[in-house]
Amino acid sequence: ISDQKPLGCWSVKHGQILTCPVVCNFETHEYIAVHDDKVLRIWKNEDINLDKAFKATLSADVYRIHSLPQAGPVVLFRGGGVRTLDVLLEAPQQEIENVISGEVIRWSGAFMEGQQPVLIFTTEKDEDFFVYVQKPKLSSLHKYKLEQQESAKPVCFTAHITNQTVTLLCLYSNDSVYQVLIPLQQDTEEEEEEEILSKSLLLNFSASETVLKGESLVALDKDHVAVLGSLTAPRKEPRECLTIWNTKFQTLQTSKELPLGTSGQLWCYEEKFFLIHGKVLTVIMYKCETSSLAAAVGKLKCSQTSDVSSFVNWNTLEDEELVVSFQSQESVALKAESRMNLRSRRSTVTEQQPETLSIGQLLLDLKDASNYVLETELRKLMAKAPTPDLQATIGCVVTALTDRCKRNPKFYPQHFLQEIVETRDLSYSLCPDLMAVALEKKDMHLLQLCLERFPDIPEEITYACLKAFLSMSESHLQNIDVNLDSVICYIDVEFDNKEVKTEIVENGFGAEMEQDMCGTKIPKESQPWSDDDSCPVGPQKAALLNAVLHSAYTETFLLPHLKNLPAGQAILFLRYLYYLYVKCSEKVNTTLPGIRSPTINQIMDWMCLLLDAHFTVMVMLPEAKELLSNLHKFVRAQVRFYSELNKIEGSLRELQRLNHLRESHTYSIEVLEII
Fold this sequence. Notes:
It is a single chain. It is built from 19 helices and 24 strands. By secondary structure, the protein is of the alpha+beta class. Among the domains are: 205-288, Beta Barrel (Thrombin, subunit H); 358-441, no CATH class; 454-492 and 533-620, no CATH class. The chain has a 5-stranded mixed sheet, with no helix packed on it. Helix 9 (444-453) runs parallel beside helix 14 and helix 13 packs across helix 18. GO terms for molecular function: RNA binding. Keywords: Activator, Nucleus, rRNA processing, Transcription, Transcription regulation. It is found in: Nucleus, Nucleolus.
């Protein structure tokens, strides 16, 4: 989330529907999903095809899977039956009992009480609401009925467990929150008669003529809740807002309007709120302090800066910069929610350390220093930075340098920036303006380093680098210092940058085979470059393009940008990819020599991406016709060759087995007839 980088994407087949939220198994680091109500899927992050993942068809419809860090996933079925995942996987077709009759589950939650998982869910039937408390490992089940509320019904539920007592909080349609206390009973037998639970009023959201219409309710701790809803007042448009309440003293702790609107859903995890604001996922950090009357009424003395709330950092939602720790880095991270960087944002809602303040103050003091003084002091700062904050400090250093570059066009510490990227473990999110400045300065070497080392580069920046590399003239690139380690082993950089010809020994694909099978002999004059087997770009440009091939991307986000690539540059890039593809096919292990050389998978993926983005244009362009024809014939020849290999695969395995059985140590000549 901090990098706004998708790490994985999986899809079910057409016609299948995911019917409950996907969860992560904290113990095995696997994802668990259910589609079409009964089909369970389990896969790991490295799995690509969801259809090939583990599959189990269950005997009953699943309502929700809850994942607990210390107890593993718990599966709740629509009929009220509960199983732990490990028990369920032992016999997926086991019969699941129906606990509820004619009731519909409205909410469920899983919690830990000691070493035991506790599952709580609420149901509705004929405007009556029921609460079930289950301990799956102890086969314990208790059913309760909620006391009815006149002219109002529950809208949302949340709960927490403290001292063997379940505190169920119910947000009702009359703009109030009620509290229900349920003791965790120790017996393992089911209750014969359902007990009616009484409730007590905890909060009322009506004040004079202003009313908060709540949609989502989340318990933060035993004394605080968060409510997402609309604030309504006479003669005014409803305003959506997020509010935090102190339930102990029944006071509003803090609130924030959400002008772009929300989906009505609010999630809370590890002291962070997650909500949809407008069209983006917004993350807001908070920290619950010990509840006291002084804090509840806003009279608590605090040593924090006045710009930072003592409870929640609303600045994710504001277009303003804060003078807090790591000021330069914070101004980038907090400028807008579309550029959130939680990783580099240190504890702005907790007590600041003297070292942190000194770094932030130093960066402010150096804002107007001379270029030499700035670079010298930043080097000292990096050398003495404490280990826990080293990454954030380096990010601040780079941000300070890029800020100076934008203010002063004549200032550009090229070697210092390259040194930092080469020697420090940085990421794009720590210095988001660095590559933009490098593109503006046309610093190809720095861009190459960033592409090779940053794991979280946005697809827009990757495309900008690709376009810049392809548009740069070969004569200009020859005068630029570029790392050629990725190309030097298969493109000879001597002899005026002409590639040395080598004998081709391909994977069953020699020149004779090409002509015999596909008739692909191409006239010299029709070729866009002078030699059939030579690289269409110089070694410098090839090295830069290899860096792009190594950059991580998500196809969905890269493809729209790639469609904007000029046709001439797209054809040139495809020619280079085709050249690499042929080079890989010359090797038995389909691996190019060299350091950071592109892999066959990277080459194939980019070829497919480029063809997807520009296929219609390339089909229409005469200069691309020969290239597409050659590519098609080459792939077809390889498919035929591997098809022939598959035909003799069984014979080769039998031959290998016979050799193992014979174990002859004497010289011999044998003739084996393959039928």
